[in-house]
Write a structure and sequence with these properties.
The complex is a heterodimer of chains A (about 100) and B (about 475).
Chain A lengths: L4 H10 L6 H19 L22 E2 L9 H6 L9 E4 L5
Chain B lengths: L1 H6 L1 E12 L36 E2 H13 L3 E2 L2 E2 L2 E4 L9 E4 L6 E9 L5 E13 L3 E3 L6 E5 L6 E7 L6 H17 L12 E11 L9 E4 L4 H20 L8 E5 L4 E4 L12 E2 L6 E2 L2 H10 L4 H12 L3 H8 L2 H13 L3 H19 L10 H12 L5 H14 L5 H7 L8 H14 L1 H8 L6 H11 L6 H12 L2
Parallel strand pairs in B: 13-14
Antiparallel strand pairs in B: 1-11, 1-12, 3-7, 4-17, 5-6, 5-16, 7-8, 8-11, 9-10, 12-13, 14-15
Helix pairs in contact in B: 3-4, 6-7, 8-9, 8-10, 13-15, 13-16, 15-16
Classes of the chains: A mainly alpha (about 100), B alpha+beta (about 475).
Amino acid sequence: MEITNDAIDKLAHLARLEFNGADKESIKQDLTQITAFCEKLNEIDTTGVEPLIYMSTETNILRDDIIVEEITHAEALKNAPKKDSDYFRVPKFLDK
Amino acid sequence: MEESIYDKYEPVIGLEVHSQLLTNSKAFCSDPIEYGALPNTQVGVISLGHPGTLPFHNKAAVDLSIKMGLACNCHIREVNHYARKNYFYADLPKGYQITQDKTPICFDGFIDITTKDGVTKRIGIERIHMEEDSGKSMHDQDVFDSLIDYNRAGTPLMEIVTHPDFRTGEEAYAYISLIRQMVRYLDISDGNMEEGSLRCDANISVRIKGVEKFGTKVEVKNMNSMRNVQRAIDFEIKRQIDLIEAGETIISDTRTFDAQKNLTISMRSKEAANDYRYFPEPDLPPLMVGRDWVARIKEQMPELPAQLAARLIEEYNITAYDAQVITELKETAYYFLEICKHTNNYKSAANWLMGAVKNYMNQQAVELKDFPLKAAQLAEIIKLIDDGKLSNSAASQVLFPAFCNKPESNAAALAQELNLIQESDEGSIKPMVEAVLAAWPDKIMEYKAGKKNLMGLFVGEVMKRSQGKADPKLTNKLLMELLDN
């Protein structure tokens, strides 16, 4: 599969990343290689094979509806790059 | 003719309703859920999306979703997978929402709505799936930053998706009312649209009548009341028809409803359309819902409003209108049933509930749970009336308000105290009747000559003498006996 500049732009946008110049060429080559590697799988006939989603055979790992408060308000905010005493703060992402 | 332009078109509307689920803890972790708590106090490492954490699904969220599915006549899926819906937004800490993509837990159901002119219509339910809510962002508190509160992040949701079966805003209104009533009856959600525990999005298109192909679909969000759902849809239908009639094309976009201005506004930014890149959520093993699980939920299902209304008509012999009013809220319906445990006068129970009790609640601006009288106490009043000890007017105008202020009392004692008990023994009424007749010999002649409506005068005179306490039925009977002899 050919990775076009448009595809790079779209993926970069979805991942909120930016690629320009040499970086863009480099990621393009990487992605081309990765997709080529995955395309190898297309050589196998998988008709009638159930998709494998899980590596374990476990099912129904559920929890009862019980409240456990694991961390405090202060701990919750502790690692935030920007915060005030109540809130996480992020660059404004919607101007209304 | 201006009007006929709109008549040429057929609107096609499908609804997506998100409902928060009334669990104690979140969908995939054990944080508490409480509306209005201080910001970022109901969070944990899982809901904040810290690396290395693993989600565990709350069993109660599954139970409630199955309950709604059964109420909507859905099939319940045996093998369920979870999926990740990927997008970047600051109120979604993990960068993806856990949802169900290809395997909604409930599918292929229906519910019957009734519009206000009494027409019933079947609405197909395509699917109900489980997912989690996002946090909340505030953009207007600060000049440079948006503020994020993650308390809501991870709150369990179910999303109910209909087939595009609606043709008018009014049908959508009837549907959302019914959904709200159902989630409240089933204790699935508090159904509060203003607080956002119930949210509705609409997919709207129009096509020329008779054309099979759907028109271009527009999504409308942010309709935070039932009335606004109807208004937004009606506006959007008209907007689309006007555009087409003006020779323009409908752009498939997402619009928000501005309730103040009563119009929809495009939310579309210059960004590329969303691409959610769904893929299976590997952190959650599959969920198997066996028949025994479904059977257990079925057993716990209370009566739904429609079933209950039918039963009230059938077993309690009240009118369809009364049944509908009484079952509108679960609390009222259950209160009615409770009164009926203490009295056989069901009609009177219904009248009291829809009359005096409702007035009291309106005047005091309280809900039934804060109404001071127990159902049994209301039945006491009904019994006093039925036994002829209390007149209807004394009961509703004097005893009822006094009882509401003194609910620790009982109806009979209070009526006695207020001097409301009617004379209902012959021995005390008969002398008064005789005295009245003795005072009006000429009226007796007229009565006997055929002026039967003079009976009212005699009864009134007896009432006067008894200070309103003579049992009117008994008074009537005694008067008749004496007059007709």
